[in-house]
Amino acid sequence: MFEEMSFWDHVGELRKVIFRIGVVLLVCFGGAFCLVPYIFNSVILAPCHHNFILYVWLHKLGELIGSSSDFFMQPYSVRLININLTDQFMTHLNTSFWIACLVCMPLLLWQLWTFVGPALYTREKRYVVTAFSMGTVLFYAGVAVGYFFIFPLTLRFLVNYNLSSEIINTLSFGSYIDNFMMMLLIMGVVFEMPLVTWLLAVFGILKKSMLIKYQRHAIVAIVILAAVITPTGDPFTLTIVSLPLILLYELSILVIRDKKAIKPA
Question: Are the C-beta atoms of residues 262 and 127 closer than 8 Å to each other?
């Protein structure tokens, strides 16, 4: 039935899909806007306080290994200041939008699938469904790693870093939010690496033997890429962003196998 539709019928179906996506986003945005003040205190600003789960783990680890290092044992907190009149309101709007996108992303992808799916062959449908499922899980996994590990470690290192005792670190609210959002988004995207390599292998564009052959080159490229995408560019952030990327590259080697390009069923 999909193939018998005219061009304008397709346009009409696409318009319906876009309308449904818009309604879903609007509803989720409204809910997120109401909840953001509570989410800010318990989630977004949580890495600023000493009782954040990662800091509690570090403290317990310090006790376990008998460390007296401030990194493990010192109580930790960050105070933010707002230096722009509109920052808090605009951040409220932006955060509500991004939360709405994160929460309803699977539903948005499903809506797109209802439009694209009928035009695909049976075998192609299986690969696309698998790709959507893997992509969603990997993206949320990347966001979780960014939130629980990458961003808190970066924040803790940079806030405590002093070039001179004459300089007092005072973190602005806008700087915190920009780095928070960017870090989580970056980690969500880079965690799609195994999915991208799997898809390239499925269509015969990339081979496992090629990944193994250029493994050393890839590690160098990953470090360069991490230097480009990290919002701060310091060696510490570069290291903690590069390591997950290298592990994802190794995972990519494990999840694919050499095979011929697929043909329509």
Answer: yes
Q: Are 105 and 136 in contact (CB under 8 A)?
A: yes
Count Cβ atoms below 10 Å from residue 62 Cβ, excluding itself: 17
By C-alpha distance, which of 73, 58, 68, 88 is closest to 153?
A: 58
* Tens digits of residue pLDDT in 146-161: 899 888 888 888 887 7
pLDDT for res 22: 86
Which residues, listed in sequence order, are joined to residue 80 by a DSSP beta bridge?
171
262 half-sphere exposure, CB direction, 13 A CA radius: 16
204, 261 contact by CB (below 8 A): yes
Spatial contact of 87 and 173, defined as CB atoms under 8 Å apart: yes
pLDDT at 141 over 60: yes
Residues 84 and 98: their CA atoms lie apart, in Å, by 21
Token pair in block for residue 264: 């329509």
Task: Copy the structure tokens of residue 82.
Answer: 């707002």
| pLDDT of amino acid 212 | 83
Q: CA torsion 108→36→152→188, rounded to 10°?
A: 10
**Amino acid residing at 4:** E
Question: How crowded is residue 22: how many other Cβ atoms within 10 Å of its Cβ?
Answer: 10
Q: Which helix (H) or strand (E) holds 220?
A: helix 215-229
Question: Given the DSSP bridges, would you call strands 80-81 and 171-172 parallel, antiparallel or unpaired?
Answer: parallel
pLDDT at 169: 79
Q: Which phi and psi angles does 164 have, rounded to 5°?
A: -150, 150
What is the value of pTM for the model shown?
0.75
Domain boundaries, the chain: 7-162+169-255
On the question of pLDDT at 61 being above 70, the answer is: yes
DSSP conformational letter for 255: H
- The beta-strand segments (E) located in 48-123 are 80-81
